[in-house]
């Protein structure tokens, strides 16, 4: 049975919001913040407060480092097979609780339940994959070229890791870091996004039940991530920063980490081009476009942000995409038939509106949508814009919403040049029936990941990450994900 089938067969489980908001998770205990302050968690579908979680102080962060340090020797000495079994149990428990987790994600993030279910399946898979990888961490042994000594390379856990995650995939961005870190033998402190802390805390309860020892995973939420990160990175026991979020914040964190020469993995913003050549299978391209654009209502780092369509197929593609976008059911994330949920905040809606207004002023034609919805939730309608100008603001950065801008191109060379005309390089999509051209274009595009005749690229078994301003390092993949949490130790010996 596939994971998706297991999830759809599971019983509906209503999330216990009070349990998810019971406190910071430090040293295996649920604690209140030393400040006594709380952070409100808002339901983006209604704009109303769902609950609140503790706002951790610097002291709470120090307690987390102490807990992670105390747990580290035993965890790194735990046999890989045992670590693997615990990770496998995390995977199983996530599947057993998948409906509860999906509902919780929908409530605090707003995404449609079907997207939330997909996220839970993807997030759980990082535990299964890394349970399998935990027992396959091998070293190297060889003879030095001089013949005078042997070279032994041992891979050791890097140490305590600070993990910082965004709101758009509250489960998957956490498990994509926690699972390989634990498989490698590291202990961690997770700081989830303030908008979506409940999923991170609900997952912490699952880790505990799966047998993750106290102190190995610590989770805390704060409204002062900058000062807290400075303190955590300044502690010499902390050796790794793994961050997923915007490029702007990533740059600040790299500068902070540089002061202490901390190893960094950075999963940052994207500006994915989606190329459709004249010879593409139109239906497949449209289906892929809907996934690449509308999964998570456009709030994904891999979301198609610029549609480059060759002249011969441009009008048909525009018409087909508009038809599909208009047909989407917009609504509260938790409603069963919702296909496009709200944006994360009102500020996000305002940003999208500003980008759309800017492109309209520069000559774009609105084929559907194009005006923010009024009301309590943070909604923006599915929108298609044709003939968007290259000097539109939305071409330069992330839209992060349900807006598909179309640009026309003539030649393969032009398509590659325009696809690369961005500081980002995370994902790209290419549709053509000519496989040689598909591979040539994939090779020419500056991005860490290419989806060739596909609308979805993420897979825990493949290395995920970007080039240029989209990041440093890789998550997932056969050895890439775990390698980010290990140091190579070389031992020279003569015999
Ligand atoms: P963000 O504003 O950069 O925040 C990400 C995380 O960093 C949050 O936990 C945030 O905490 C924290 N943070 C903010 N300022 C900080 C500081 N000065 N020091 C330490 N931590 C700080 O990004 P976002 O709006 O949550 O997420 C959307 C962005 O993430 C997009 O750019 C998207 O492309 C990117 N993303 C990338 C990937 C990838 O794999 N490449 C995946 C998903 C998302 P608070 O919530 O408390 O502010």
Structure description:
- The protein is α/β, with parallel strands linked by helices.
- It folds into 2 domains: 3-268 and 470-492, Aldehyde Dehydrogenase, Chain A, domain 1; 272-459, Aldehyde Dehydrogenase, Chain A, domain 2 (3-Layer(aba) Sandwich), CATH 3.40.309.
- It has helices spanning 3-9, 17-20, 58-77, 80-96, 98-109, 113-134, 172-184, 197-210, 225-234, 247-258, 282-294, 311-326, 346-361, 393-396, 412-419, 435-444, 480-483, and strands at residues 24-26, 29-31, 38-43, 48-54, 140-143, 150-157, 160-164, 188-191, 217-219, 238-244, 263-267, 272-276, 304-310, 365-368, 383-386, 403-409, 427-431, 449-452, 471-472, 486-493.
- It is globular and about 70 Å long.
- NADP nicotinamide-adenine-dinucleotide phosphate binds next to helix 9 and helix 10.
What is the CATH topology classification name of the largest domain?
Aldehyde Dehydrogenase, Chain A, domain 1
Strand content: 15-25%
In spatial order, strands of the major sheet run 14-15-16-13-12-17-18
| CATH homology superfamily of the largest domain | Aldehyde Dehydrogenase, Chain A, domain 1
Tell me the radius of gyration: 23 Å
Largest sheet: 7 strands, mixed
| Total count of strands | 20
CATH top level class name of the largest domain: Alpha Beta
């Amino acid at each position: 049975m596939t994971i998706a089938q297991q999830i759809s067969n599971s019983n509906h489980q209503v999330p216990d919001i009070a349990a998810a908001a019971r406190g910071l998770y430090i040293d295996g205990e649920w604690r209140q913040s030393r400040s006594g302050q709380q952070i409100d968690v808002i339901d983006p579908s209604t704009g109303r407060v769902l609950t609140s979680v503790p706002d951790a102080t610097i002291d709470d962060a120090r307690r987390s480092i102490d807990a992670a340090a105390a747990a580290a020797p035993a965890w790194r000495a735990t046999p890989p097979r045992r670590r693997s079994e615990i990770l496998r149990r995390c995977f199983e428990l996530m599947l057993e609780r998948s409906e509860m987790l999906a509902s919780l994600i929908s409530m605090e993030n707003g995404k449609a339940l079907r997207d939330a279910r997909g996220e839970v399946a993807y997030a759980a898979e990082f535990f299964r994959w890394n349970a399998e990888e935990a027992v396959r961490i091998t070293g190297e042994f060889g003879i030095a070229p001089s013949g005078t000594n042997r070279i032994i390379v041992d891979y050791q856990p890097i140490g305590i890791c600070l993990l910082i995650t965004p709101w758009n995939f509250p489960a998957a961005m956490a498990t994509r870091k926690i699972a390989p870190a634990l498989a490698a033998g590291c202990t961690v402190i997770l700081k989830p996004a303030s908008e979506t802390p409940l999923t991170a805390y609900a997952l912490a309860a699952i880790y505990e039940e799966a047998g993750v020892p106290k102190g190995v995973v610590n989770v805390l939420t704060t409204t002062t991530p900058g000062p807290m990160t400075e303190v955590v990175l300044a502690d010499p026991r902390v050796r790794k920063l793994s961050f997923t979020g915007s490029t702007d914040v990533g740059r600040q964190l790299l500068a902070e980490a540089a002061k202490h020469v901390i190893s960094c993995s950075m999963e940052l913003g994207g500006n994915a081009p989606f190329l459709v050549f004249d010879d593409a299978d139109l239906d497949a391209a449209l289906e892929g476009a809907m996934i690449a654009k509308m999964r998570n209502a456009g709030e994904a780092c891999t979301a198609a942000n610029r549609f480059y369509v060759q002249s011969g197929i441009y009008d048909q593609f525009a018409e087909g995409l508009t038809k599909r976008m208009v047909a989407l059911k917009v609504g509260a994330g938790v409603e069963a038939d919702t296909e496009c949920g709200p944006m994360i905040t009102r500020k996000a809606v305002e940003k999208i509106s500003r980008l759309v207004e800017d492109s309209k002023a520069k000559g774009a034609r609105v084929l559907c949508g194009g005006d923010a919805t009024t009301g309590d939730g943070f909604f923006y309608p599915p929108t298609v814009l044709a003939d968007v100008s290259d000097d539109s603001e939305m071409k330069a950065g992330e839209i992060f919403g349900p807006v598909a801008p179309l640009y026309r191109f003539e030649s393969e060379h032009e398509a590659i040049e325009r696809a690369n005309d961005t500081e980002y390089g995370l994902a790209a999509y290419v549709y053509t029936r000519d496989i040689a051209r598909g591979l040539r274009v994939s090779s020419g595009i500056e991005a860490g990941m290419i989806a060739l005749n596909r609308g979805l690229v993420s897979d825990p078994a493949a290395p995920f990450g970007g080039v240029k301003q989209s990041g440093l390092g890789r998550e997932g993949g056969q050895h890439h994900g775990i390698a980010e949490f290990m140091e190579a130790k070389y031992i020279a010996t003569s015999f």
